[in-house]
Specification:
mainly alpha, elongated, single chain, 4 helices, 135 residues
């Protein structure tokens, strides 16, 4: 698995899901609480950049696990556990409903990174193109 493609994939997904997705989720939380709409360019930029950087960090963790852990289920479990605990720390102190919503977004991101990483690995693996008359 290529380091650069892993980082690009995880970072772009971080931008979209953890960055933009978190910003949209913040708006949903505000609406649920009846808080009047508030938006600043600086605040949105901060959230989106933090999501992007988080995606980059998750990409590094994913790549290292892919490189050093042989069993797929162990890699997936370790990836979700490590990044999930980091995410949990990030939402520490947030009310439980919002905490659950943000953790669900983070877990969805982690699962998607893992699925796309597996697909990329499978697509780049050499295929046996030999002809066998017995099927």
């Amino acid at each position: 698995m290529d380091f650069r493609s892993t980082l690009i994939r995880a970072t772009l997904l971080g931008f979209l899901i953890l960055g933009i997705g978190s910003r949209l989720l913040m708006r949903v939380v505000a609406l649920m609480q009846g808080t009047p709409g508030g938006w600043t360019f600086e605040g949105t930029l901060t959230v989106v950049l933090l999501g992007t950087v988080s995606g980059l960090g998750a990409g590094v963790i994913y790549y290292l696990l892919r490189r050093f852990v042989d069993r797929a289920w162990v890699r997936t479990a370790a990836f979700i556990a490590i990044c999930g605990l980091i995410s949990w720390r990030g939402v520490h102190g947030v009310p439980p409903v919002q905490q659950t919503m943000f953790m669900a977004l983070a877990v969805a991101y982690l699962i998607l990174v893992d699925i796309l990483g597996r697909l990329a690995t499978r697509a780049s693996a050499p295929h046996d193109m030999s002809f066998s008359p017995t099927g």
